[in-house]
From TrEMBL:
UniProt-annotated location(s): Membrane
Regions crossing the membrane: 23-45, 51-75, 87-108, 139-161
Extent of the signal sequence: none
MF GO annotations: structural constituent of myelin sheath
A Pfam family assignment: MARVEL
Membrane topology classification: Multi-pass membrane protein
Presence of the UniProt keyword tRNA-binding in the record: no
Family: Belongs to the MAL family.
Alphabetized UniProt keyword annotations: Lipoprotein, Membrane, Transmembrane, Transmembrane helix
Main location: membrane
MARVEL domain ranges (all copies): 16-164
Biological source species: Hippocampus comes (Tiger tail seahorse)
Protein name: Myelin and lymphocyte protein
GO BP annotations, alphabetical order: myelination
Amino acid sequence: MASTTSADVLPTGGRIFTSIPDLFFIPEFVFGGLVWILVASTRVYPDHPLGWVMFVSVFCFVFTTLWFFLFLCGANQSSIWPALDTFYHFLAVVFYLSASVILAYITVLKGWGITINSGGTVSLVPLIREGLKIYRLDIAAVVMSYLATLLYFLHAIFSAIRWQRA
């Protein structure tokens, strides 16, 4: 009687480009990298909430890259890997969702012309030229951040389904 092992569940090498959960790796790279680039191309201000957004985007980009190469090289054949894959992607969803909400909130404030100064004081600044450009970049970053959240969520759901089949 044949038994299923984790080798039958987790793909390696080029097969990761044809399996459903692992097919999300490339779009996660693209949208996560775009969040990182778009936020970094503006003034990371206020620095505390946007610092979290930068941390999340860089953390997830680096770990997804590492995860991708571990899957590509076939180092994912232990029985714990389906659970680790599911855990990592759900953690990425929680991180990205929190970062997306923070980024959207800061962007809405910038759209209203409200800035929070380093001393915690609030000032109104009209959106002209450079401010409007930064606001548009922030809007794009918010959209990319929510798309990255969605992709990580789909990857997590399909990884959980794959884990339950193992």
